[in-house]
Amino acid sequence: MAFALVAEKLFEGEKILEDVPLVVGDDGRIASIGEDPQSSAPYLHGLLAPGLVDIQVNGGGGVLFNQEPTVEGLRTMAEAHARYGTTAFLPTLITDRLDVMQNAANAVSSALSQQVPGVVGIHFEGPHLSVPKKGTHEQSFIRPLSNEEWEIYERGDLGIKVVTLAPETVPVEDIHRLASLGVRVCLGHSNADGKTVHSALQAGAVGFTHLYNAMSPLHSREPGMVGSALICDKAWCGIIADGHHVSAEAITLALKAKPRGKLLLVTDAMSLVGSDALSFPLFDRVVTREGDKLTSSTGELAGSHLDMMGAVRNISDWCDLDIYESLRMASLYPSQFLGLQSGKIAPGARADFILLDRNLQVQKTWIGGHQVYGD
Predict the structure, then answer these.
(1) Residue tagged active-site, from 54, 174, 268, 307
(2) pTM
(3) Are residues 285 and 366 in the same domain?
(4) Most buried pick, 28, 249, 364, 371, via CB within 10 A?
């Protein structure tokens, strides 16, 4: 249904407009900006900004994708993250059994056909990882790429496909084949040396999953995966700005090293985001939340309790970063990584946007012109 509004302030992706009318058409896209408003158009106090895009969401609203790989599970996750400004996301399946991967793929396919708001594809984080850098992934499920996984990755009904892998465990020929299928290959959970990383990038890998975390570090005579990620201007890097995974200084270094637009905010959110629960089972372990930190019963960090707007505020505060650049890191840049035509408020763009108050808290969220959160 078409509607109009007038925004006190509107960040269209590059610049700020004030007291600007906006019209959304019946097709869920922005019809016009700045034209004479309808007399009945509501005036929205605050900042209207592009919706946020998260490429790594393990769960939300009490649902972990691995444990509930269903359309209803995806709806719950989407609703939970819409409260924090996320209008597009990749449900992320961490290393698991083949049947769980198949169920997750089927759920995403159904969610896309049913146009579940926010779901745009799927991220398989594993199972082709390095055991020494497995993090909280279940070691018994880590395995080489087989014909059964190829059948999943070759599917054409999964929207945007991202696969995180350790390049020392997957031949460069297979990385090239994945890229030729349209899969966005990211490198992570890896102990690879710089030469191996370079070969993977040459074969078609385009990014790195949660920079610094679960990857071989930079040394004086060996760049490792961290150094290689910082050196490669073409590669995108996700980063978890929750105060536990990465220090403010490490984020500042990445901001200085990477070209503008190549560092992306991600949440790596687990099921507790948007939930009052304080713990959840993960395979044979229990993950417990203390404040905003999630720790497995075996001692390692287990994802995050971060939401996208929280990441925007954090990186702006900690790294003295302009709030509008922080917003781009959560909207425009991940949109560009995924090949989405979003991340901006412009005529013809899908009407995915959020209303923020003066404290940068989300008040309302729209996806495809439909308000999915807020009064």
Answers:
(1) 268
(2) 0.96
(3) no
(4) 364
